[in-house]
Amino acid sequence: MESINTPMVGREGEQAELAAFVTTAAGQALVLRGETGVGKTSLLGHAVALAEQEGHTIIRAAGVEAESELPYAGLHQFLHPLLSEVAQLDGGTRAVFDAVFGWAEGDPPSVMRLGIAVLSLLSLAAAQQPLLVVLDDGQWLDDSSADVCGFVGRRLAGSPVKLLIAVRTDMASRFDTAALPERSVAALADEDAALLLDRRYPRLGKQIRRTVLEQARGNPLALLELPAHLGGRAGDQAVDDLIDQHGVSLPRRLQQLYGARIAALSDGVRAELLMGALDGVGTEPGGGPPGVRYRMHDADEAVAAGLLDIKPTTGDLTFRHPLVRSAVVQMATPNQRRAAHQALSQVHRENLERRATHLAAATLDPDEDVADILEAAAESATRRGGALTAVTWLTRAAELSENHTDRSRRLADAAFVAGHAARLGQAHRLVVSGLTPGQASSPTSVLASAYQALYQDGDVRSTQRQVMAAIEQLRDGRSTEPEEVLTRLVILLLAISQYAGEHPTWQRTHELLVSLGDVVTGRTRIYSAAWSDVIRYGAECAGVVEQATANLPALEPWEVSRLAVSAYHLDILSQYRPYLQRVVDRELETGAAASGVVMLHLIMLDQMAVGEWDEAEGTGQRSLDLAAEYGHALFAVQSRAYLAQLAAMRGQVGRARDLQAEVDAWARPRGVGFLTQLADSAGATAALSAGDYEAAYLYAIGITPPGTFLPYTYQASRTLLDLVEAARHTGRVEQARVHALAARDAGLPELSPRLALITHGALAMTADSEPEAAEMFARAESHPDVARFPFELARIRLAHGIRVRHVQGRVTARQYLVPAAEAFERLGAVGWAERARAELRAAGTPPRASTLDLASLTWQERRIADLAAGGLTNKEIGERMHLSPRTVGSHLYRVFPKLGITTRAALRDALSRTEEVSQV
Fold it and tell me: Which residue range or ranges hold the HTH luxR-type domain (predicted)?
């Protein structure tokens, strides 16, 4: 233990900062960053000594290279002293720790949820006295634990908890992007390096002293270790050898110094050190929870050689420095390492994941028992949020499989998990590695390559042919692959067909599924019905999809996503959204990125449906950013399509058209009908918002002609109101009526609550008589789920109010026009809001000032609005407020609907009007 009364040479600035860090009352985090051997651990020890003097509770831990792939190993290490206090936390928080540490079954939580649980535990531990958590060698903390530490470190303000972390500059780590305060620990200045060397070795010869100072370059570990090395060898030769290694990195040279000492040890002691090194025995003081790692013994020889220290509190042997541990492993032969791993697998026979780690390294030849253990460990890692670790273990299990069938099955599982973890290239490489030389593509390799081609390139044409051929190969017995491969191929074929969005593709898909008979599961048949043509097949699956919400936590994330996609087509997505919102962060943060992006799309669609448009904008942008980051071009374009539809609804016509053009230009040449239909739908909605009814009609009939709902055309039913409204406003009354009647005759009201609402609304708009119009409107307005679709309801009320004004007079019309106008304003549907206000004026009631007035503007939005009203451009505003022109434009997009306007020119009047109203 360092003493604060023992001065460190040349570290006055670092010590002063650490003193301020420890003594301040506020909770905070600090990262010490420096090269190997620069003295980070000594500074941590100094901070600990000072904190103990100040009455802090201390928790110390260290990242260990051997555990960097074990999910939450680091978190378990530094929380171990506090785990007895978990019982005092609430049930929900306890369940988080149960799931993460495998104490009980449960979904792995997101980083946010786990981070909040850790904060609760740390706050509980610090209730009586302040707490200092010290993490050394943070670069070796497993990714899951490092992410949680970063989350916690950013949220310690106001708590009595401090977090101090040391990381190496020569190794990448998750702390590089953790956004925590940092202090760089540099090499010692020349005079301080000389002072440290002289204090430790006062009688060092001049030549060796000069050489050490030159070679150490101010690194304290090198200053302390090099003289001992040189003193044990012929002086001139030792100096020459050291100078000859000038091009070798300092950590490497220090490792070689330790290697020379290790080589001088007896075989038994070296074997003992190897067991400790391979099991992650740390350097002082981080040793981990008792009983977790191997305990070295009978190694006094290594202590005497300066390779090990004795932990004063427990008597355990620990490595003096991580470089010693690395040198021990590198000097061992492959057979020695395998033997040590085999012995360690017995030490950890009760710990599945640790045992699997050692068996994977110990086993050379195929061994089905070891492969089974690795497969079980992969399943455990997946449940706890370690998808990428699971891929590694499944791949190793495949390598150790004793027969081709099990090898293919495990590689297929690894590829499947990798694909859902947004590692499409890795998934493809995995299955290709399972092919023997000269072997044609297997169904498993087709599965991986088709995933990659679809999601990265939007290839629906060739992927459909390849996947269908692979399914036929399995159906006809021309290939022996695990049953899961056939199921996954069928699901992928359904996804390809959905994105293709055309009749011939779906017809071939349905015919193939029929030929498979009972091999196709009941749930797969539900997907086939809901994803293909909800008008023709949806009635048979709505009940099943609704019932499935009761069992979502027991399903794999990709299964939840598939059911939720079905719910979207059936307009019952709101029942799934609470669960999706709870787990989406977990999916993204634990590796299942593909499922996570799909969940974000679904959350956005429901937010759009229920009128949470600001939230939908944020969700859509997040999905776009993630899809672009992972190289999923298909998902990125899909995000733009949904953002285009949202912009169209809000009256942001220019933005909607720009996004629509991007989507169309990418999707149409590839034949991705799902996205081209979305682009046409956004075009129709944007044109309606701008009052361009002729353009809206042309977009709508590009999706489906009046009076028909083309098979497998997803947007045909969803654009029912668009086509009817556009037809009526362009004098095509007969086409509007025919289309509304076709919706009724096709049974749309029985398929989903939204389709019931808009079908009855369309019938009310096109009714031949007033009693029929009143009856259809009443059916629409009284539907029990009408509140879930405020935008459609407001459009129907507006249309009915216009009709009533012409037939029954202005007073009667107001009861429909007023709630329509208020709903449009609340939603921020600018074009429709202006139209509703115009109708209110025609009905003899001047619309009251917008309910979304200046009070709803933030300070920054108000300032930007004032400057824009004064005639400044976005660039000029940005220069004044230190914002980019794009950010200014984004703020104005939000300001316009709040003020009930659509153009920059209307800003001055809107600001004046709302100010007058506020003064009344």
Answer: 850-915
Could you tell me if 180 and 194 lie in one domain? no
Q: d(Cα 363, Cα 820) in Å, to the nearest integer?
A: 71
Residue with token string 């609340």: 826
pTM surpassing 0.85?
no
Q: What is the CATH number of the domain that holds 730?
A: 1.25.40.10
Residues 728 and 633 in one domain: yes
Q: Two tokens at 833?
A: 């809001």
pLDDT of residue 706: 96
Q: What span, in angstroms and rounded, lies between the C-alpha atoms of 162 and 167?
A: 17
Question: CATH number for the domain including 864?
Answer: 1.10.10.10
Q: Is residue 257 part of a domain?
A: no
- Please count the residues of the chain: 920
- Assess whether 875 and 823 both reside in one domain: no
Average pLDDT, the chain: 84
Residue whose entry in the numeric block shows the structure tokens 């300001």: 895
Which residues make Cβ contacts (< 8 Å) with residue 292, sequence separation at least 6?
76, 77, 80
> Which residues are within 8 A (CB) of 890 and not within 5 positions of it... i.e. 6 or more apart?
none
712-765 tens-digit pLDDT: 999 999 999 999 999 999 999 999 999 999 999 999 999 999 999 999 999 999
Instruction: Give Cα separations from 887 to 381, 616, 827, 884 (angstroms).
Output: 41, 18, 22, 5
Q: Read out DSSP for 285-304?
A: T---STTTS----S-HHHHH
Same domain, 132 and 46: yes
| Shared-domain flag, residues 231 and 150 | no
Which is higher by pLDDT, 154 or 412?
A: 154
Q: Examine the domain organization and report whether 772 and 809 are in the same domain.
A: yes
The answer to which of 9-18, 41-50, 198-207 has the lowest mean pLDDT is 198-207
Amino acid at position 487, single letter: T
Q: Which of 811, 842, 873 is the last residue of a domain?
A: 842
Structural domain boundaries enclosing 225: 190-247
The radius of gyration of the chain's CA atoms, rounded to the nearest angstrom, is: 34
Residue 160 sits in a domain whose CATH number is 3.40.50
- 862 with 800, same domain: the answer is no
- Is the residue at 288 inside a domain? no
Q: Is residue 591 scored above 70 in pLDDT?
A: no
Angle formed at CA 631 by CA 627 and CA 635, multiple of 5 degrees: 40
Q: Hey, what amino acid is at 676?
A: T
**Token output for 157:** 């303000």
The angle subtended at Cα 772 by Cα 769 and Cα 775, nearest 5°, is 150
User: For the segment 852-892, what is each residue's pLDDT rounded down to a tens digit?
Assistant: 455 567 767 777 888 888 788 888 887 777 677 777 877 78
Q: How far apart are CA 701 and CA 699, in angstroms?
A: 6
- Asked if the structure places residue 179 within a domain, the reply is yes
pLDDT, tens only, 760-789: 999 999 999 999 999 999 999 999 888 889
Q: Name the token pair of 626.
A: 């993630």
* Cβ-defined contacts of 238-242 (< 8 Å, 24+): 238/208, 239/207, 239/208, 239/211, 242/211, 242/215
Domain boundary at 184, 204, 223, which? 184
Within 13 Å of residue 679, how many CA atoms lie on the same side as its CB?
21
CA distance 376 to 363: 16
Residue 395: which of 420, 379, 412, 419 has the closest Cα? 412
Query: pLDDT band for position 209 (50/70/90)?
Result: confident
Instruction: Give all strands (DSSP E) within 283-397, no chain letters.
Output: 308-310, 317-319
Decide if 203 is inside a domain: yes
The verdict on 97 and 57 lying in the same domain is yes
Please give the tally of structural domains in the chain: 4
Count H helices, E strands: the chain? 48, 7
- Identify which of 386, 415, 411 has the alpha carbon closest to the alpha carbon of residue 397: 411
pLDDT of residue 292: 67
Stretch 633-655: mean pLDDT: 95
Helix (H) or strand (E) holding 94: helix 91-100
Read off the pLDDT band of 237 (50, 70, 90): very low
